[in-house]
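In response to the reviewer comment on reproducibility (Comment 2.3), we provide here a single inverse folding case reported in full, input and output, so that an independent group could reproduce the run without further information from us. The structure tokens appear first.
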């Protein structure tokens, strides 16, 4: 069977995704886990979505443009077009070469943003997933959960201009948060919710505990 245009990579490495609402601190925690995995002697590749490959980065700029207006179905199609290329050209080859791949967002973000947040039928999203990825899925998904008002406050503290998703109203962000929690509730073997409003070191420790317990590692603290 083929997945996203390439044979099943048989995953010599592991694929870990980080999900959650805006302002949850994914970038900081990905950087910390990446360093810890490298110190454990593993090959590590860090990537992101939308984006992660040259073609997907082109689509990212379209999706996040603050002035762009997309309907939810078009958004989902663009996200999965970017994801298919990202998987084919970056994720699958890295896994075959023994890398542990850490991704800032993956398909759960489409489920949460376009599905729970914008109301696109989940069946349509799952159909796109199967076309783009077959039965490929992350080995572990860490969902960083933060109250909406705290996440929005963190976004406002940033110097850079917000993208179009960050600028959406609080009711959208609350639907988004509940969507991620529902995804985790449906797939507890894959997903782990970690409360991201704790101090950074506490969040890091809980992530390391999760990776150690679920994927059989010992990480330096």
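Designed residues, in position order:
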């Amino acid at each position: 069977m083929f997945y996203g245009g390439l044979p099943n990579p048989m995953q010599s490495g592991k694929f870990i995704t980080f999900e959650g609402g805006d302002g949850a601190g994914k970038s900081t925690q990905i950087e910390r886990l990446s360093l810890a995995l490298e110190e454990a002697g593993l090959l590590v590749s860090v990537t992101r979505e939308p984006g992660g490959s040259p073609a997907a980065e082109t689509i990212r700029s379209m999706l996040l443009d603050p002035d762009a207006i997309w309907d939810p179905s078009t958004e989902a199609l663009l996200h999965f077009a970017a994801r298919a290329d990202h998987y084919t050209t970056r994720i699958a080859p890295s896994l075959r070469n023994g890398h542990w791949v850490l991704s800032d967002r993956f398909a759960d973000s489409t489920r949460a943003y376009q599905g729970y947040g914008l109301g696109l039928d989940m069946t349509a999203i799952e159909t796109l997933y199967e076309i783009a990825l077959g039965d490929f899925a992350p080995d572990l998904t860490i969902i960083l959960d933060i109250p909406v008002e705290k996440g929005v406050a963190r976004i406002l503290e940033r110097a850079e201009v917000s993208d179009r998703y960050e600028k959406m109203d609080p009711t959208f962000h609350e639907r988004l948060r509940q969507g991620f929690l529902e995804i985790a509730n449906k797939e507890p073997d894959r997903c782990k919710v970690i409360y991201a409003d704790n101090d950074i070191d506490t969040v890091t420790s809980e992530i390391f505990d999760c990776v150690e317990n679920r994927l059989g590692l010992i990480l330096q603290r």
